[in-house]
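Preliminary data (for renewal application), iron/sulfur cluster complex.
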Amino acid sequence: MTNKELLNKTLTERFGHRPALFIRTYGCQQNVADSERIKGLLLECGCIECEDQEKADIILFNTCAVRGHAEDRVFGNIGRMKAVKAEDQNKIVIIGGCMVQQPHIADSIKKSYPYVDIIFNTNNISELPGRILDYISSGKRVLDPACEEYTLNEGIPAVRDSLRCRAYLPIMYGCDNFCSYCVVPLVRGRERSRRPEDILREFRECVDAGYKDIMLLGQNVNSYGKKDGSETEFPDLLRMLNDVEGDFVIRFMTSHPKNATKKLFDTIAECSKVSRHIHLPVQSGSDRILKLMNRHYTREQYMELIDYARKVIPGVFFTSDIIVGFPGETEQEYLETCSLIEEAQFYAIFSFIYSKREGTPAAVMPDSTPHEIKAERLNALNEIQRQVTEKLELGLIGTRQKALCTGLLGEGSYECRLNNNAEITVDGKGEVNQFKEIIVTDYRNRRLFGKEC
Ligand code: SAH
Ligand code: SF4
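Predicted structure:
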């Protein structure tokens, strides 16, 4: 009997029926993609999906560690498991993902959260059935956050949310960049890339399943394959996927500026199915802070990249990530970030107050700026961005666009996503997951409106 068959039998005996599985995912798209594989594996072991945490037999949290706020939310929810286990000891509470892959967090779960039964490591999802079996057969909690090997989670089917129009497709795992503020390299291990043929196969599956918006995932897609000496670089991969037959948009995240090349932008320009939207996180507009962050580019180099891309890809939109209040960041350096936002004309930014992460180099850097000042700066920076966004959205009025319907809004209108990732409300009768040719007609209350051509 395989582990999967054994788990199926053991769980069905424990619950007296096929176990209902509830998964809650915190954090980034990579975590969503991991959860799709966790679900795929556990459904193969006989579980059935359950959307109601109260009714589930197995409750699984896939957690995030990127900022303290994400961890606080998880702890709040784990706390609620006390009542769940008190009512029914038979239920199984499982926690995996970046947060619990930090040894100090796993320790505090061991000590302070006795109602968590199993910890597992998403760098090796296939260990999960064995851990559940160990827990059931021994009756003891299984709480070692380490995994035997950091894998590519290959061969595990992803069960994607059928209500979502976008499919996430991991092309690589881990990170070798060690930005000084970031916990990701500590919890996701060293960078490793999937083979082009495995990506192509899964990509075709997504296209065949009807997905029209496919997002390639990696912490730094621009270094795809480099470490393994693969002949296929990221731009080559884009070209290969662009050649797949069908009508779809290819997106990718995240593109690290230090490895973004002219070849990347030239390739995007030549590939009609690759989105005219590039997420290129800059983090700061100050060269001194960028250096302390260990980002390996200057503001000038960053702007050169954007300028080149705008030359070869007409109409391309950029979005970015910004950290405000990195340790030692002065008012002047913060203002340099504000000026970069205006200069770069980002379509949108994801902006965060720096969050101290245990074990990272920045955690021991002196940081004397009070949180309230950082919060004020973040607000002011977001206001600058709001005005830039508004200007860019107004500039879309009158343009003809290919829009993907992502949801219906009742009588007579529907929601769409444009190629540049902008959301728009369109008059007419839409069908989810269909492309429409539209004209942007209006911008009201921070929202674009359009009509079918
Ligand atoms: N690999 C991606 C980022 C992944 S984390 C890249 O390099 O662009 C997503 C974003 O979270 C980062 O771009 C950064 O802006 C933010 N972030 C990461 N660590 C953070 C921290 N300690 N405090 C605040 N924001 C952080
Ligand atoms: Fe974190 Fe930097 Fe790696 Fe992105 S590239 S995951 S910010 S260490």
